[in-house]
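Data deposition worksheet. Section B asks for the primary sequence of the deposited chain exactly as it was used as input, without tags or linkers unless they were present during the calculation. Section C holds the resulting structure in token form. Section D is free text for depositor observations; keep each observation to a single sentence. Incomplete worksheets are returned to the depositor.
Section A, Depositor: J.P.
Section B:
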Amino acid sequence: MRFVWRMALRELRSGWRRLAFFFLCLSVGVGAVVALRSTIRNAGAAVSADARLLLAADVLADSSREWPPEVLRAFERAGEARLVEASTETVELPTMLRPEDAAGDGALMVELKAIAPPYPLYGDFKLSDGAAFDHKLLEGNGAVVSVALLERLRLNEGETVRIGEAAFVIRGSFAEEPGGASGGFRLGPRVFIGRDAVGTTGLVGLGSRARHRMLFRAREGETERLAAELRAALKGTLVGVRTWRDAEESLGEQFERSENYLALTGLVILVLGGIGITNVTRVFVEQKRRTIAVLKCVGATSRRVMFAYLAQTAALGLAGSLFGILLAFVALRFVARYFAASLPPRMSFALTTGAVWQGLALGLLVTLLFSALPLLRVRNIRPDTLLRDLGDDASPRRRKFDTAYWLTAAGVIVALVLVSSWQAASLRVGVFFLAGLLAAAGALYGAAAGLIFLVRRARRIPYFAVRHAVNSLHRPGNQTRTVVMAVGLGVFLVLTVRALQTNLLAEFDPAQRGRLPGMYLIDVQPDQREGVAQLIEGMTGKPAQLVPTVRTRIAAVDGREVDLDAREVRRDRGRLGREYVVTYRPALEVNETIVEGGMWPASESTEAEVSIEEGMKGLAGMGVGSRITFDILGRKLEAKVTSVRRVDWRNARTGFLILFRPGTLELAPQTFVAPVDAPADSSARARFQRSLLERYPNVAVIDVTEIVRGVSRLLDNVSLAVGFLGGFVLLSGVLILVGSIAMTKWQRVYETAILKTLGATRRDLLAVMLAEYGLLGLVAGVTGAAAAAALSWAVARYVFEIDWSFSPALAAAGVAATVLLVAAVGALSSLNVLTRKPLSTLRNQ
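Section C:
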């Protein structure tokens, strides 16, 4: 072992420059893994640490209806049992807000929250001027609003706004609220009013979409007991109970899942670095052929030489991993400086210990795994290499069937599966991930080989530079296919994301949505139907469509009551415990088709019948012939499932998971929804909303155009993040390219010396290099763009189920950028070759 370590250290001292890109390829991958894992762990820790603040309570009881007497008694009993230290009630609902002044700008959907002292139970509620929130601000119909609302409606503190049927004075504004992240997706900015004032708005009556929440601060150590007693007392009601620990566990699971999938993305970059390591090691062994032959002549065994080079690669792997950790530290400093506002408050930007150790372990594993097969070539280098010049035949050859080689290859694959599964925290996901990565890499490699096969047969090219460049692409040891695969994979990821973004935005474009409405009116009361219809017809010139809706819950399926706490129901708790909005009509819409069963005939029936959307099939055993018991405001209704529908949600003016046969729900408490073909002009939409709300203040307006803008912003952010990772992959490909040039520079130096001797100028040689690397970039760009088009089509067609269109401009821009990038990098990496004098090179040969 002393010989092994001494030889490894000597090789490192003499050849570290040639192995620098081995080091860099690994560093980029390790840095990506450590930075991604540290970021998501820090974000998860910041959010989980504030779990109480997110819920704004220890225990929360939630219902979509007013508290019935038995529920209020359960709350009182919990207080009498000395389990509760403090409690408060809130009412939340989306609604419309408009300035009182007729000259004010339009109207806006907001998330209204009516609160009572001592809200908040946890956290500090600070106003935008730094003052502490005081409930006196809400007295006498006062309101405290989000800063975003003031900006969007151009309002100031002290002005009056109308919410429903009541007027409120803006007495303060805030930028951040306690419990602000617990509400999920929001349709608009937050507005706070007093709990006793919400009744004056006329928005919490029959058919209201308000959510009633009771928040409890439990006595020390009594959180779980309080939650258990409330769940037992409220079993069979429509009240849900959850604790801050439930929220913490849910958030923890989400962040852990995100961390694992992001780690897989980092692993892609690391695997690309491993491919670079394989090629650098292979060329390094080729260059050390004579040195290895000398060592074998003086008694060194193949095993000892392999161990020496393995120790060298392990040392480089450790150094590269440590440098990758340094890169991750720098990346987190960059994120902290420029993106901290978009991340959870009080989030740390330090490297986490677990991520650092994982990065080191992954770096060493990838180094050893990807250098193992090239190092086995040492066994095939013979001592007689020193005695005769075998030309091309001097390169190591494997036996016809090399048992050790194939066993090592199988071990590498198994190890990669285990590494992928470790990063994904799932053997199944790890296997599928590695299979997908190998399939993508194999497809790119095969496509590159096919294109190069065609290029190789281009013999009669009149231009010297292009002809010589084509010949250089298949020069022995040029690693053209590997470089094309690595660079093409980066292009493939970047263009795939951009193509999907383009198609998704086109799908949301109002001009492309066909029959889909631009606006929805909701919570229209039965006595308001005619007036609302007249307003719609006056704006659009078309008859209005008002769809009846009824709110209901699923109480039982085939006589079995739905117990949301049962183990077999927990997985579907979100769907079985939710409140469904249903409608009734005699026939299908044009965007619906029957996939099982049959639609009800035109003849009347005394039995209640329903049709369910195909995504609900199998939920608690539902299917054609099942009998579902619905709870409609406390009244039970049993209906038979007669059909299963497939709904094309892209073309749905109104979409419902459950559809009733007419003759059942007509007398049930109901409201109406109106899809409206709103004009594209924002001022015309604002005038319509204002005139509607002046007459019917309870009606809420969902402006689809605003939602599309929000989706566009979300897609931009997602594309930026994924494009950033794709850029890392592309960087790995560029590093492999630079490493390939560095490792084969001795061939290029000799070739350039010959060409100079034969009369080639530096301009001619530069043209050859630009043509060679331009062709390399063209092959990589075309391959990556073609693969990106195929994948984006498959994802759009089978995942998002949207129309797909090819963007020639995007593909052309991607190919052109790749050609310019590869040509520039290749030429710059080879410039010193042009400056060498040919005489010294030829003498050395």
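Section D:
The radius of gyration is 34 Å.
The CA atoms of residues 6 and 691 lie 87 Å apart.
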